[in-house]
Design a protein that fits this description.
It is a single chain. The chain has 215 residues and is an alpha+beta fold. Helix content is 31%, strand content 28%. The strands form 2 sheets. The protein has a 5-stranded antiparallel beta sheet with strand order 4-8-7-6-5. It has a 3-stranded antiparallel beta sheet with strand order 1-3-2, covered by helices on one side. Strand 7 and strand 8 form a beta hairpin. Helix 3 packs across helix 5.
Length: 215
């Protein structure tokens, strides 16, 4: 367990019991059934993570840019796919950046369609030296970049395209991404960020967590 970070996950995203909260029902009133189930599962995970911190709060609902709005003093991140939802939360006094992502293994047809929007060929070739197979490498790189974007969004005030960061190195259960452009006055081109990851079946979980002490 990561020190100071509260984690919650659910595996049955389509469970109808998730549809009982009036606030979530209102926030998801215009969403399709599958999208609504994923959204609600993510918010339920977020509420559980907050409770583990001792924070009693409503489900984090979308802000102006659709990002979850967390209670004052809390950093958090939510991710969900068709089978899994996960959320993490921590105190802003302990961490300066926190981002999480979960992705199912990308199939061959989808991989061919989206590869060029996610990374350069050189990135995949480099990653495949450590992660065998194009599907695994592309899924992992996609998830790692998503986790990075979520972690830095509160500081840079917007999302970047996938070419704003690139694969740099692979370490034990982690990737190192390098920024290819200045994101703001603090996050400059060339800065490197470690992204931890773990596979659970055919889902990959990626996380960026940067403590204020640098540990």
């Amino acid at each position: 367990m990561l020190s100071g970070v509260s984690i919650s996950a659910v595996r049955r995203v389509m469970d109808e019991s998730l549809f009982s909260d009036p606030g979530l029902l209102y926030a998801t009133r215009d969403m399709s059934g599958n999208r609504r189930a994923e959204f609600m599962a993510g918010r339920i995970c977020a509420a559980r993570s907050l409770r583990k911190m001792g924070v009693v709060a409503a489900f984090p609902l979308p802000g102006r840019n659709r990002q979850p709005v967390w209670p004052t003093g809390v950093l958090g991140s939510i991710s969900h796919c068709s089978t899994t939802a996960v959320a993490v939360a921590t105190a802003q006094s302990r961490y300066c950046a926190l981002g999480v992502d979960v992705e199912p293994l990308i199939g061959p047809a989808i991989a061919q369609q989206i590869q060029r929007s996610i990374c350069r060929d050189e990135e995949l070739i480099g990653l495949e030296r450590s992660v065998p197979g194009r599907k695994l490498a592309l899924t992992l790189l996609f998830s790692a970049k998503e986790a990075l974007f979520k972690a830095l969004f509160p500081q840079v005030g917007g999302f970047k395209d996938f070419y704003a960061a690139e694969f740099f190195a692979c370490e034990a259960r982690s990737l190192v991404l390098r920024l290819t452009q200045d994101w703001n006055s603090q996050w400059l081109a060339g800065k490197k960020v470690k992204v931890r990851y773990a596979w659970r079946g055919e889902d990959v979980f990626s996380a960026v967590y940067l403590s204020r002490t640098g540990n």
